[in-house]
Amino acid sequence: MIKACLILLLVNLKLSLQCGNGPSTFDNTLVEVNGKSETISGCISPDTLKFKGVISNISCSNQNVLDLNEGALQNILSKFEVTLSGNNIELIREGAFINLPELYLIDLHNNKLSLIVEGSFKDLPSLNKLGLHTNQIKEVLPRAFNNLPKLSSVVLSENKLENFDQIWFYRTPALTAIDLSSNSLRDIKQRAFFNLPSIKDLAFANNQIEFIDKDAFQGLRNMRWLNLDRNRLKTLKINIHPPSKIEMLNIEFNNMTYISNGMLEALRPKLRLIAISGNPWQCPCYERISEWAFKSSGRFILDLAPPDAAEVVCVYAKTPNFDLCVERSDDEFQEGFSKHFEGKKAKLRWRIN
Predict the structure, then answer these.
(1) Which of 72, 74, 163, 228 could form a disulfide with 25 if both were Cys (CB 3.0 to 4.6 A apart)?
(2) What are the chain's domains?
(3) Where is the signal peptide (predicted)?
């Protein structure tokens, strides 16, 4: 009995020396290193791995890993990526990733993360892509993403976020894409990305967005892709740095009845794809958008619902000036006018050559 306790004490001492003084992250956990399986306890590092070659890929998925504690991954000097998906990870402690100069991708999707604390991801000089989708994230603290000079893409889709704040990011000069789809965002505030001027691609699909401040995207001079699909917008009024570099705009399946000529013209310079189906457009506005698209020397593509389905493509106001494309309140339409468009799968797009 004493001998067994002594052995256990020595094992724990060894892990402590190898992994630091904090609690262990892994306990006889199955991992794959370059496709080869082994079990590990404590942390993942060259000292604890049986694999002794050049590491290019580490995967630990569908295991019972609750927290990523300080030093969970450390001291791997080769270029590699790590997948930690499908576990039960609830928390990433500050300093979970230590001395990983060539780590370029972290995949943490499909866990149980609810909070991203300050310094969860910091001092990773080669990190390029970070996947945090399909978790339960409700809150991200300031500087959660800190000193990541090559970080270009962060995926935060399918979480429970109710707001976005650029102070989550600090010293991330290469950040070009953020995916916030399938959260619970209700608005996009003024200058929401002002301190992130490298942003080019933004995805807000499948939220509850009703309002976008006209200066929400101020400072984004190179934005090229904006996805607002499946929200609650009634119109689109945003200021775009001229000349616009937006190439793709998706506003499908909102509550949009109107968009101004000025907005369309502001979008024109680089636009290649605009997706507008599933909205209760006023018929005069629908016709005006069609004319605008054709005048842009474009190619009109319409994928209809199945042939036997009744296809409603636009609505008329019940007011005397129903033949004008003007911004209107819901009271100016028949009650329930937008229900014809709910859940439709038809796609209406213009590609502009």
Answers:
(1) 72
(2) 1-11+26-155 (3.80.10.10), 185-352 (3.80.10.10)
(3) 1-16
Report whether 161 contacts 186 (CB < 8 A).
no
Q: Is 258 helix (H, G, I), strand (E, B) or coil?
A: coil
29 close to 66: Cβ distance less than 8 angstroms: no
Q: How far apart are CA 250 and CA 246, in angstroms?
A: 11
Strand stretches in 225-297, DSSP E: 225-227, 248-250, 273-275
Global pTM reads 0.89
Distance CA 29, CA 40 (A): 5
For residues 299 and 341, which has the higher predicted lDDT (pLDDT)? 341
Q: How many residues does the chain have?
A: 353
Confidence band for 328, pLDDT divided at 50, 70 and 90: very high
Which amino acid is present at 35? G
Long-range contacts of 125-128 (CB under 8 A, 24+ apart): 125/101, 125/149, 125/150, 126/79, 126/101, 126/102, 126/150, 127/103, 127/151, 128/104, 128/152, 128/153
Q: Which helix (H) or strand (E) holds 32?
A: strand 26-33
